[in-house]
Protein 1
Amino acid sequence: MAIAGQFAVTDATQSIPATMLAAVYRGVNDVRLETVPVPRIGRGELLLRVHTCGVCGTDLKKIAAGSHSAPRIFGHETSGIIAAVGEGVTNLHPGDRVVVFHHIPCRQCYYCRHKTFAQCSTYKKVGCTAGFEPSGGGFAEYVRVMDWIAQNGTVRIPDGISFEQASFVEPVNTCMKGIEALRLAPGETVLVIGQGPIGIILSVLARRAGASVITSDLYPQRLKIGESFGLKLTVDASQTNLVDRARELTEGRGADAVILAVGSNNLIRPAMDAARPGGRVLLFAQTQHGEAVVDPAAICVDEKTLVGSYSASVDLQEESVRFVMSGEMNLEGLISHRFPLREITQALELASHPQPSSMKIVIQPGSTWSGGSARTVKGHGQVAEASHGRATEGSGCESRGRAAL
């Protein structure tokens, strides 16, 4: 049975409207704020009112490359409040605060049996949509959560945990999967190249696994932010030869494992050079097909291993939820900029062209729920109130009207 029309929503001051605002992808570097119908839900499904959705680099790549058909509504690091439930849903209720995964595997196919969940055909189907071809939908006011996600990929947010903290469950899961792929042993040395929000999460998780962590970035400001998470051993790659320094810090050997947390294929060769003979290199951000320079003798003669890790693992779902919801890591502290949905183009512009002090960027349709102004963060940890949510001068994002991504 389809559900539409007006429904009371707990912890919200309005009933469900017929239309909503959404950021609609219309083609290469073309995302427009449009009015679209609120999704209709069916049996076993949920309607989620979006509070916070993180901007993920994979969505930015899809928008810039035009690799997906239009129209679509992206955004998949989504937390909010259940606005309505479909027939047959008994374990979740309107008013529940939740975070949703957008991919869940079948757990029965060949790939699932071999724990390669991201290759499962069911996993490849996106289970959340704000309309058009399912693509996550978090860059909208409401999201339809399909039945297999409602049943197996929807997680309640405990009291005292913010929507912002909860929105990190999926990206933390992907990082845990990468760390698991490296098979770290306590006492090993790990070099993490790139200290954006994902790089910092990977670094913290590597340290949590018992490794000694060296972090590297071209921006000293990002290394400083990482230090606030206890990552003290840093390399300013703008001033220092990273490979030489990694060897100096490891008695000339190189790191036991290297994590490449930035998407540049040009860094694959330096990452391999920074690893010791017999070491491992994790490619975490190479999500687009292309070519890269690799020394084959480093793999054969030096016995170095290239490891890939993509997307989340359902086997790590409970652990990632515990990590995020326990507050073991203050993930909110990685957020540098918060934008209301009406400022989506400015948010995507900044995320596509990050500044030294810009870290995690989130879209918050829920910023207007209480009727107050949206918050925009100036740099790391400095909050400025902005009229109507517009970024103010000096916040790292100038007001440009429609953004050219």
Protein 2
Amino acid sequence: MRTARLWKRLLGVESAVVEGVFIEGEGASTVFVARVRPSSSDRSRCGRCLKRSPLYDRGEGPRRWRTLDLGQNMAYLESDVPRVTCSVHGVTTAHVPWARHGARHTTSFEDLCGWLCAQAPGSSVAELLRVSWRTTTAIVERVVSDLAGRTDLLEGLRRIGIDEIAHRKGHRYITCVVDHDTGRLVWAREGRNSDTLDQFFNDLGDERAGLLTHVSADGAEWIHAVVKRRAPQALICLDPFHIMQWVTKALDGVRRKLWRTLQASGHGSEIKGARWALLKNPLELNVDQRICVAVIAKTNRPLYRAYLLKEQMRAAIAVKGEEGRALLGGWVQWAKRSRLPEFKKLASTIERFRPYIWNTMDEGLSNARSEATNTHLRVLTRRSYGFHSPEAFIAMAMLTRGGLCPELPGRG
């Protein structure tokens, strides 16, 4: 094998010409520098659109790109980068086949960094690759942007889930859209309002929005309003988890009020420790919790009535068709007559969302995929000790949950 071809293989620059390799520094600071140039087919192309363009000038002299290490030593590619006049992008730097436009690292180095960031904390990746954590963040954003530009994540959407997640303190949220059929995160933007969701439908387009059949969401009315306006044919399904969350919150409100009343009279110990016994699934109760519920059934009828309402709702949303609708209607009437203010208020909420709950019963669609994505993103946030910008958070989310993680160099 010729020496030039060997260096091309080692440096991962098969589409470039290696003019020479030299060593700089001594000891631990030794680095390899390879002088390269684009092959004839890659010369005089716009760095953005790769269109052949006339030469503008010779640029600002030699430029270096960090590439994959050679053994224990860092390695760089060095080349002149002229500027060209593109009919679309104007005067811009010429394309180099070994790096993305505007990057100071080679594509193979950035792909390795992106893959590692999907598996480990950015600080560990930064230490391993001998770069700063800000550099790893910028690389992830660039890799995700590049891969997203090669594929249309919004193509073929039929059933989607919409939810929001806080990316830092101060009520700062990201709105996420998940494809139920693939489980992938397909869209994410900063914000939690109708304007943010309108951006999704603008990106999707009216034609593809007309192909949506199901949209799962929580009780956020700004989501429902935008979906009804932009995709009126889609069935909105209210997430069963959030329905039960409303019911358990009402049950806990009844328990708290009763506990405060009993505590004022010196009898608060009668329902001490009853919270989890009341909130858990009856099939998962241990012996002590079963005894606790039995005692409440005999001594605290209002609290036990709230507990039965909770279990009745659990049974109602598990049933499909006309029977499920009848059970839900019976629950609403029972809640209204329960003489429990928390459940009377909840009955009005259930009535307002009844059509969406019916869709959930008939279609069996929940927001579980969105919640699973949110759980994964919270783990990412804890692992990274937060993100300095929403763009960095979104890039990491798309890298790990959007199918935009690059392959390891040389494995494709």
